[in-house]
């Protein structure tokens, strides 16, 4: 009986002391960890909502440009084809969606790492070995996946600088065509033969964009050496000017056509060069129509020509 009373007395004295010594681990630490998790999830949800809101186009603004793109440089063109087909909106939407995805991933990763380190700190775990081990693993992964990292970094700069977008006609040196999709790791384009090309962004050394700012139509018209070059030149320039003044073609021409004169000559022919500045992606259609009209006018004036060509 006395032994039982003694055990109860020890428990009555020891339990409060044990509770006092370990309450930080049993109650305070779990509460702090739960609070860190809840706050982290809340901040992540707020960040993702803010990014989604920034990605959506501004309603009623007229431009339809998402808020996320406003701080960045944009090289949009005003091709009537792109405007009518809606590719400008698609270009902006895809660029904004890609940037939004990157920001979401970066925000989630940052919040996760901070919360994880705070939880380890609450559990009284030494972070120095963990950070050192993580650094070693990061270096190893960096060496093993350097091509992937290069592709993603190059893709990020391409998007931020708006080097090209959906609907642009670009030349990757080894592949050229119309851009169908732009991602962080690769770009998809389709050439004139319908072949789809997938190009890794990290492998792009240089890119030529034929859809930014303006395009130039360059026509080298060969005429016979017996033809009157002054008459042929006057006819070519007049045809181009008349075409630029037509209602259907006036929005296409950005500058009055210019006749540069004799570009080349040989024993068989004389080449006369005509140029015209037009809107992006309109150069091929304009050049075909100019060739047709020039050939018809030369036939009417009985000006001998050889096969029409462009450089």
Would you spell out the secondary-structure blueprint of this structure?
Elements: H1 2-55, H2 80-85, H3 87-122, H4 127-144, H5 146-161, E1 169-171, E2 176-182, E3 186-190, E4 196-200, E5 208-209, E6 215-224, H6 229-245, E7 258-265, E8 269-278, H7 283-301
Structure commentary:
The protein has 7 helices and 8 strands. The protein is of the alpha+beta class and 311 residues long. The strands form 2 sheets. It has a 5-stranded antiparallel beta sheet. A 3-stranded antiparallel beta sheet has the order 6-8-7. It starts with a helix and ends in a 10-residue tail after the last helix. Mean pLDDT is 78; it is low at 78-86.
Characterize the overall form. elongated
Order of helices and strands: HHHHHEEEEEEHEEH
Number of strands: 8
Major β-sheet, in short? 5 strands, antiparallel
Portion in helices: 40-55%
From the structure above, extract its key features.
311 residues; alpha+beta; five-stranded antiparallel β-sheet; three-stranded antiparallel β-sheet; 16% strand
Write a concise synopsis of the structure shown.
With 311 residues, the protein is of the alpha+beta class. The protein is 53% helix and 16% strand. The radius of gyration is 34 Å and the shape is elongated.
């Amino acid at each position: 009986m006395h032994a039982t009373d003694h055990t109860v007395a020890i428990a009555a004295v020891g339990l409060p002391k044990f509770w006092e010594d370990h309450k930080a681990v049993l109650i305070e630490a779990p509460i702090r960890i739960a609070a860190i998790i809840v706050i982290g999830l809340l901040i992540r949800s707020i960040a993702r909502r803010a990014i989604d809101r920034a990605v959506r186009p501004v309603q009623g603004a007229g431009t339809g440009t998402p808020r996320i793109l406003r701080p960045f440089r944009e090289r949009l063109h005003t091709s009537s084809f792109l405007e009518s087909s809606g590719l400008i909106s698609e270009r902006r939407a895809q660029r904004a969606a890609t940037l939004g995805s990157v920001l979401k991933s970066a925000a989630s990763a940052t919040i996760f790492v901070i919360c994880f380190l705070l939880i380890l700190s609450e559990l009284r775990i030494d972070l120095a070995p963990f950070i050192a081990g993580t650094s070693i693993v990061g270096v190893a992964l960096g060496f093993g996946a350097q091509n992937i990292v290069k592709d993603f970094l190059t893709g990020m700069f391409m998007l931020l600088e708006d080097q090209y977008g959906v609907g642009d006609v670009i030349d990757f040196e080894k592949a050229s065509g119309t851009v169908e999709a732009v991602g962080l790791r690769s770009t998809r384009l389709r050439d004139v033969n319908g072949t789809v090309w997938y190009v890794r962004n990290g492998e792009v050394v240089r890119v030529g964009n034929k859809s930014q700012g303006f395009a130039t139509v360059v026509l080298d018209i060969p005429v016979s050496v017996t033809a009157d070059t002054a008459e042929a030149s006057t006819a070519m320039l007049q045809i181009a000017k008349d075409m630029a003044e037509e209602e259907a073609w006036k929005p296409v021409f950005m500058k009055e056509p210019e006749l540069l004169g004799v570009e080349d000559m040989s024993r068989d022919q004389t080449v006369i060069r005509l140029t015209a500045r037009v809107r992006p992606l309109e150069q091929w259609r304009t050049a075909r129509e100019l060739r047709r009209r020039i050939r018809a006018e030369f036939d009417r004036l009985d000006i001998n020509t050889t096969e029409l060509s462009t450089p």
